[in-house]
Write a structure and sequence with these properties.
The protein has six helices and no strands. It is mainly alpha-helical and about 190 residues long.
Length: about 190
């Protein structure tokens, strides 16, 4: 593999101190900052909610950028492969739990989505020695829908946005469950 297709040239070791991993670490650092902004002034201050949304958006954008940098410049590391999904789950998990604590999102939605995420993450660790199963198109759609839904719930939008928020979150919930089932099916079909 060449450096341009996402892996380092044969025989070379990529340092963990690189821009892609730096963005992953930044995303992890932003999780508590996001939560402070989300809960500031009781969690329903419009200014703080916009601040929380801005932090959330910046963190989610770093997720896209760090992967592009890692693949384009051959900076893929074991640290990055491990920490990138953890950073993603920490951020979205914090958002789901935070919104439920504030009463903005039903707990059952958070429990179903985080239960799926935790289950799939544990399964990934279980099969990590066999290789990583790459994210499918469905998995990427799940992430996109969750990000959009969380963004809509974090922003202090007028009541007219109630049903659009519910519809996008419903779509995220359905795709999350279906992709989880698909992931389990793909593991069962994988050769032992």
């Amino acid at each position: 593999m060449s450096a341009t297709d996402g892996a380092s040239p044969a025989g070379t070791r990529v340092s963990n101190l690189n821009p892609a991993n730096g963005l992953t670490v930044l995303r992890i650092v932003l999780v508590p900052v996001f939560l402070v902004a989300l809960f500031a002034d009781g969690g329903h201050s419009a200014a703080w909610r916009w601040t929380a949304f801005a932090i959330f958006a910046v963190a989610m954008i770093t997720d896209r950028i760090d992967g592009q940098i890692a693949r384009r410049y051959g900076l893929v590391t074991e640290f990055g492969k491990l920490m990138d999904p953890i950073a993603d789950k920490a951020l979205t998990g914090a958002a789901f739990v935070g919104l439920s604590v504030l009463g903005d999102l039903p707990w059952w939605v958070t429990i179903v989505i985080l239960g799926r995420e935790l289950g799939i993450t544990l399964m990934r660790f279980w099969v990590i020695n066999e290789g990583v199963i790459p994210a499918s198109r469905g998995g990427k759609l799940k992430t996109l829908l969750q990000t959009l839904a969380l963004g809509l719930y974090i922003m202090p939008l007028p009541d007219a946005f109630h049903w659009p928020k519910v519809i996008v979150m419903g779509a995220a919930l359905v795709v999350t469950v279906l992709t989880g089932l698909d992931y389990v099916r793909s593991l069962r079909r994988a050769p032992a």
